Amino acid sequence: MQVVEQSIKASLQKYFGFSSFKGEQQEVIQNLLDGNNTFVIMPTGGGKSMCYQLPALMSKGTAIVVSPLIALMKNQVDALRSVSENDSIAHFLNSSLNKTEIARVKQDTIDEKTKLLYVAPESLTKKENLDFLSNITISFFAIDEAHCISEWGHDFRPEYRRLRPMIESIVKVPIIALTATATTKVQQDIQKNLGMVDAKVFKDSFNRKNLYYEVKPKIDVQREIIKFVKSREGKSGIIYCLSRKKVEELAQVLQVNGIKALPYHAGLDASSRAKHQDMFLMEDVDVICATIAFGMGIDKPDVRFVIHHDIPKSLESYYQETGRAGRDGGEGHCLAFYSYKDIEKLEKFLHGKPVAEQEIGNQLLQEVVAYSETSMNRRKFLLHYFGEEFDEINGEGADMCDNSRFPKEKSEGKEDVQLVLKTIKSIVGKHKVKYFVDILTGNLTSEINTYKHNNNEFFGAGKEKEGMFWNAVLRQVIVAGLVGKEIESYGTLFLRKSGEDFISNPKSFMLIKEHNYNDTDDSDIILNQKGGRASDDVLFKMLKDLRKEIAKGKGVPPFVVFQDPSLEDMTLQYPISMEELQNIVGVGQGKAKRYGQPFLDVIIQYVDENEIERPEDFVVKSIVNKSGSKVSIIRNIDKKLPLEDIAKAQGKNIDELIIEIEAIVASGTKINIDYHLNEVLDEDAQEEIFEYFMDDADTDSIEEALKEFDDDYTEEELQLMRIKFMSEVAN
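The chain above was modelled as a monomer; its predicted structure follows.
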């Protein structure tokens, strides 16, 4: 590999304006410039990209960077162009380019203007690309996100497994492989598959001391997220969800609650993804709701929080995604919501896959369960998983997790630990955690019956305690190094030498009581449109009197102004601004502007005179019509499509559609359904029902209306007329 004659530090200053390197960057770069294969395991934010960008700029020819995501390539190329006078310095070659753009990229590379060329692994399978690369000067190959090579990695890509033969067919040059997450098993897989077992390995500590780790039970999760984000107004954050549908829904919920948020997932077109990513980087939005694709290599140092709405499918995924917080060394709050139901969903996704893949997937999931449910120091647990020891008393960042800040009770567990270790020693064969829990609790499974371990002396020896307790003991003895996990056999346990010593010479072992997440309900906010009892009867009466006065002045029934559930919610939340009023049940922007100010004046005065302590977190405003269906319903009604067809297109029955239309109208939107009403009710009937709601009704109750008309009209007909009435009179 030919290198331009200049010192590495001088080049760093010249190209990037930095005077010093981070960690082992300089050693990595020197090793690569010396023509050696290099393997870099460096946490997110550790500066991996510098390890191949600088040597590429210093070397003759073009460095080929294999990268898995178009968004990642774009971000890296933009960053490189920003430090150069010449846009040709870096290019990407992928499916997002047209023929003219591809021709320009290739010509710039042939003309030796391009120092870094980013390619997708799939691009290397195309003959025309292989022929092109065979005819240019290549300085080295960089394999970014190298964990994608390993089936034990968290983002396995089969095309990554074919990289070595493709690279060898082009040219023999050094290879640098880089990843932010690699257990020992994944590291071995990467080196073996790339044919670089001779590579010098550079491995930084996985401890991100500024990150705060927290796991909460998954209860009222949208409310919890909105409360969390609103308490960090103006700060940037990423919220990860497992499905595109949930990403879209959560982004909408955040938006209607006054949070600047956008969705990001593979279902969006390329221009939308690029636009949303750029808006996040440029601070036009504060929060991105995303599937796991977002964030790989995104160079935004001031992400202040990463939230997992759904627990990820591996600790590697979790570590990499949380690692996008606090890359500048500042605040980084990592909050995950855990429900075992999420694990069960992920297990279902594994069904139908090859047995080996299912075994790997299930083992990775069990590690996530162990991390989520543990009460021990989360940093210690996480670092242990990546083969790094951590002192939870004096280590950097030792108190930066919920379990350390709010410790669970401890109890002497010497005898319990000894029992677990003796049980493992007594069992011949390879078995996982659950098997030993079943042995200890005396749970006669078909597997235990097959191996005749119900005859084992320790079968049922711990039946006076629950399986959850023995799970906790096993997790803690594994992290303590008394028991090991055999990765090749998908997480089977074996007794370490230190475990043998403990059996013969037991000593104090303080066990930490585990979290109990059995009560998680995985629920999202569904606001009660019918409301409940008002919490402040005095204010409720004042608001009802005001409503009556306003209604009388406008010549409309009181419920047209605001319905009872809205008044009740005002007495619970005490809104004092127009924005807060719009977070009240059944109050949209239009209705708030039309009727809201007198109600705000009364509430403000009442709060002030009575020194009311208002709730810090206002009610979360739900999106009654999720995933954009509200807009779709309004548009289709404007087109005068039959309601039955609209309902069918929405995957609903007509009753469900009517409820949705009622909610749209109740929040202040005007809707004209005359075309439908004229087909089901004649003009006289419509006039009779309209006059009832205007002049006779004390309430908008359909039950009262049915009684009034002695069942002359159906419930559906009355609901439709109430929609017409509220739309025309209230809105």
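The CA atoms of residues 531 and 565 lie 4 Å apart.
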